[in-house]
Specification:
95 residues, alpha+beta, two-stranded antiparallel ribbon, two-stranded antiparallel sheet, 2 helices, elongated
Length: 95
């Protein structure tokens, strides 16, 4: 039953504790309160104070077909405003 399901704030606090204890390279980047979900991301996906945690699938496919080496930073896309931690309406939308 639901008695064993944590509240969103508990999940958020737990995720923050993990971030605080893993070499300072991660931050809480996104949340979806309705799903009781939190996204913890590596700081390399934060540019100019903004998160890029989504995937530009067209760019990914282009890079994959090119045969050249590439990494996740080459096809990252900006996180929508509603998904950024503390910016949107908790539970409005999804990751």
């Amino acid at each position: 039953g639901m008695k064993n399901v944590p509240w969103h704030q508990e999940v958020l606090n737990f995720t923050q504790q993990i971030c605080d204890n893993v070499s300072g390279e991660y931050e809480v980047a996104s949340e979806h309160a309705h799903s009781c979900a939190v996204l913890m991301a590596h700081k390399k996906f934060k540019r100019g104070g903004e998160w890029y945690t989504h995937i530009d699938f067209n760019k990914f496919l282009e890079l994959a077909k090119s045969g050249k080496e590439f990494g996740s930073e080459d096809y990252m896309a900006k996180t929508p405003e509603w998904a950024v931690i503390g910016k949107g309406i908790p539970g409005d939308g999804g990751f």
